[in-house]
Design a protein that fits this description.
366 residues, alpha/beta, Rossmann fold, seven-stranded parallel sheet, two-stranded parallel sheet, 12 helices
Length: 366
């Protein structure tokens, strides 16, 4: 059996390739050759540009495959080119297809977790990037409905783990290495955002490989089954490195240095009940261990300061600016406290008298 993997050198690639080899597939990967990594010698490489029909056709020639897993390139073109080349097509796209996931102004009111049937961003004039992702899904499913191949599509969240081009873990790991004691958190670090450890996400794809009939024509959300808010995520990394931060909690609008590692100002949680029920998905690496393993990888393979990884991450590591912001925030917070209304105190709605006839009392606030 022959399998073609578009991508293969990113975070999930080696796990996918390993899973396919263990299932008896002869694996070929299609990528640009920009990021070569150590892979088994039997893996064939096709170097080409996966973003255009003509370059795909040219690089593939007359090749056909029993299975295709598309994790990289322009999916709408990949789906088109593979119509006559494969009977089984597993595609990976992003969660930016959901209305409001990227453009917060379009968010549906409090609809979390987000199910696969949630409204999609189908207006190109509003957000063309998200619309292109939706369009790619349509292309995959059109090929399935026309009988060209058996298709399954996965909506991936933010992927973390080794070989991530913009690893958020490095923002925390480097600050610890640089001796930072204070860390800015937006909105108390309470934001929940779906993420997926690379090995867990590859496991989801292998479940689809093993169960082609069960997932034929289906679209699945997938993420780590576990969830951590930002503060817990930071504490897992800090604990692994034997460090403790003093957290400086600010409103999201002010906490600009934290936006690289803190995510958005709203919860973005995927409902994964469908992939669990139909394919039996569970995490093979628990989330706390996965975060530790990811952070340890960057501790042991440290990106060059100011190099390609940090440029992709867009974290300036400008500690002087962070300290000025912290001091100004504390100064303004103290001024606000001086004019803030007195606390209302606490009164339990049910009586807890210590003696007959005693009335409830109000506990003074602070």
């Amino acid at each position: 059996m022959k399998a073609l993997v578009y991508g293969g050198t990113g975070p999930t690639g080696p796990y996918v390739i390993d899973g396919l080899i263990k299932r008896g597939y002869q694996v070929t990967i299609f990528h640009r050759g920009t990021h070569e990594i150590d892979l088994p010698k039997e893996v064939e490489h096709i170097h080409g540009d996966p973003h255009f029909v003509e370059t795909l056709e040219e690089a593939l020639g007359s090749n056909t495959y029993d299975l295709t897993i598309a994790m990289y390139g322009r999916l709408r073109f990949t789906a088109q080119v593979m119509q006559k080349r494969t009977p089984r097509f597993i595609a990976v796209g992003g969660v930016g297809v959901y209305r409001g996931w990227i453009n917060l102004a379009m968010s549906e009111p409090s609809r979390i977790p987000i199910h696969e049937d949630a409204p999609l961003q189908t207006e190109p004039e509003v957000d063309k990037f998200s619309y292109r992702m939706v369009e790619a899904e349509w292309a995959v499913m059109a090929g399935h409905q026309a009988g060209h191949y058996n298709a399954t599509h996965f909506r991936y969240p933010m992927i973390y783990g080794p070989r991530q081009l913009a690893p958020r873990e490095w923002s925390i790991v480097r600050r610890i290495l640089d001796g930072r004691q204070r860390l800015i958190l937006a909105d108390g670090g309470l934001t929940l955002e779906s993420r997926g450890y690379a090995e867990n996400m590859a496991h989801a794809l292998m479940l689809a490989v093993d169960k082609p009939d069960a997932c034929a024509g289906q679209i699945y959300n997938v993420r780590d089954d576990g969830l951590l808010d930002t503060k817990d995520w930071v504490n897992v990394i800090a604990g692994m490195m034997g460090h403790r931060f003093e957290f400086v909690e600010m409103p999201y609008a002010l906490a600009r240095p934290a936006r690289i590692y803190n995510g958005r100002s709203q919860h973005r949680v995927l409902d994964i009940s469908k992939v669990k029920a139909e394919l039996g998905y569970t995490d093979i690496v628990p989330i706390e261990k996965a975060v530790e393993m990811s952070a340890r990888y960057y501790l042991e393979n440290r990106p060059k300061p100011g190099g390609e990884t940090e440029q992709q991450l867009r974290d300036p590591f400008d500690y002087d600016a962070e300290d000025r912001l912290i001091e100004k925030y504390y100064e303004l917070a103290n001024q606000v406290r001086e004019v803030a209304p007195a606390a209302l105190g606490f009164r339990h709605p049910y009586s807890h008298p210590k003696k007959p006839g005693e009335q409830p009392t109000v506990t003074p606030g602070t």
